[in-house]
Specification:
The strands form two sheets. Strands 4-5-3-6 form a four-stranded antiparallel β-sheet, with helices on one face. Strands 1-2 form a two-stranded antiparallel sheet. A hairpin with a 6-residue loop joins β1 and β2. The N and C termini lie far apart (48 Å). It has two helices and six strands; from the N terminus they run βββαββαβ.
């Protein structure tokens, strides 16, 4: 409790903001495609460390068969909606990182 300077009345302190929880659901971001799952994992570690706003998202590495071999898509889900996902991609692109909003 703190004192209000004008009336000297006791005023309650504002409640602290709730702790952030990992996001789930929503729109998916594709952050790259790599020649191995370990390279995709390394990319996630680098990106989520450099860009803290990625850390609460749910990382997924998806193998995709191509004529030339297997690629590993690095994806992150958990943006609350398409607008938030697009904003996250825009911030990554400004930083020179690839990103696409996918369904």
């Amino acid at each position: 409790i703190r004192r209000c300077s004008k009336s000297r009345a006791l005023m309650p302190r504002p409640a602290p903001a709730p702790a952030a929880t990992p996001a789930s659901g929503g729109t998916t971001l594709q952050l790259g495609a790599f020649s191995s799952a370990s390279k995709a994992e390394q990319a996630w570690k680098s990106l989520s460390t450099r860009f803290a706003y990625l850390a609460p998202l749910n990382k997924r590495i998806e193998p995709v068969e191509r004529d030339t071999g297997t690629l590993y898509r690095l994806r992150a889900s958990g943006s609350p909606d398409a607008a938030a996902a697009a904003h996250t991609c825009a911030m990554l692109k400004v930083a020179g990182e690839p990103c696409a909003v996918v369904k």
